[in-house]
Each structure stands twice: as structure tokens, then as C-alpha cells.
User: Which sequence fits this backbone?
């Protein structure tokens, strides 16, 4: 029982650390968004008819980051090659941040599309790469991959129709 409490304590510490890092990425990306959604540029964009209401984005990213923190906390305790895990996580973190300034601040929807495709491929790769070690826990990454596919389609629509 003591080992179980100790391992739960380690998991909780890792979870909080990854939760902070995940939401820090969202916050930093948000800092470089410029005027973002209410900007004249975005309001006048031809946007995909399947674009969800604004509140869905916040709910989706909150859920994704919570589940991703759980996944990373579990992986940290289970994966043998932590350097690979840290590298993949770091690349994901940077790519996650970069999309906002590319799309909203610089209005480079083509480069943003390329960037979000890379992020989607990376997250799909992480899911497949860790399937063997993590088994069903990789399903925690499913909302992230699915949301990136949706976000990629929205970005692609904005790029091709503007």
C-alpha cells in the first residue's frame, strides 16, 4: 500500500507538471495571436461551414490538454527511453505554440497549414510509436489527433478559399 501511495504521489506531481507545461503552451501561443478571432482579418475570412462555435475551441483544448497530461504522466513512469519522450513532447510543444502566430498574427495561412499538418503527423506518430509500451493509454491521445484533423481542415479551407 505504501508503494501505491508513493507511485500515486509521483503520478500526481508529473500530472501537475505536464498540466502546467500544456497550458503554458496554450498561453504562450495565445500571446502571439494578436487580435485573433475578433480581428477584422479573421472576421472577413471565408471560413469552413463546419467551423464549430467559439466555445468549442476552449472546451476542446482544455480536454485535450488534461488528457495529454494524463498520458504524459503515465508514459513518464512506463517508457524506458525518456529522452525520446522528452524530444517528441518538446517538438509537439513548440509546434503547438507556433500555429497561433503564423495564422492569426502573421496571417500566413499556408505556412500555418503546413505547420499544423506536421503537428498532426507528429501526434499520430506518437500514438503509434507508444502503442506497444502504453497499450490502451494511447487512446488518451485520440481527442488531440481528432481535433488536429478538424483544425487542419479549417485551416485548409481558409487557405484555399481566401
Assistant:
Amino acid at each position: 500500500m505504501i508503494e501505491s501511495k508513493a507511485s500515486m504521489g509521483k503520478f500526481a506531481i508529473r500530472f501537475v507538471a505536464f498540466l502546467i507545461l500544456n497550458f503554458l503552451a496554450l498561453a504562450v501561443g495565445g500571446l502571439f495571436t494578436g487580435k485573433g478571432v475578433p480581428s477584422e482579418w479573421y472576421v472577413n475570412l471565408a471560413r469552413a461551414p463546419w467551423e464549430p462555435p467559439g466555445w468549442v475551441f476552449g472546451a476542446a483544448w482544455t480536454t485535450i490538454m488534461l488528457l495529454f497530461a494524463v498520458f504524459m504522466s503515465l508514459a513518464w513512469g512506463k517508457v524506458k527511453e525518456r529522452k525520446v519522450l522528452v524530444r517528441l513532447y518538446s517538438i509537439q510543444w513548440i509546434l503547438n505554440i507556433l500555429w497561433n502566430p503564423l495564422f492569426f498574427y502573421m496571417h500566413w495561412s499556408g505556412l500555418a497549414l503546413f505547420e499544423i499538418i506536421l503537428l498532426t503527423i507528429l501526434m499520430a506518430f506518437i500514438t503509434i510509436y507508444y502503442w506497444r509500451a502504453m497499450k490502451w493509454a494511447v487512446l488518451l491521445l485520440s481527442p488531440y489527433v481528432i481535433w488536429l484533423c478538424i483544425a487542419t481542415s479549417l485551416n485548409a479551407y481558409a487557405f484555399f478559399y481566401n
Notes: The helical segments are 2-31, 40-43, 54-78, 82-105, 109-129, 131-134, 142-160. The domain at 2-160 is CATH 1.20.1260.100 (Ferritin). DSSP finds seven helices and no strands in the chain.
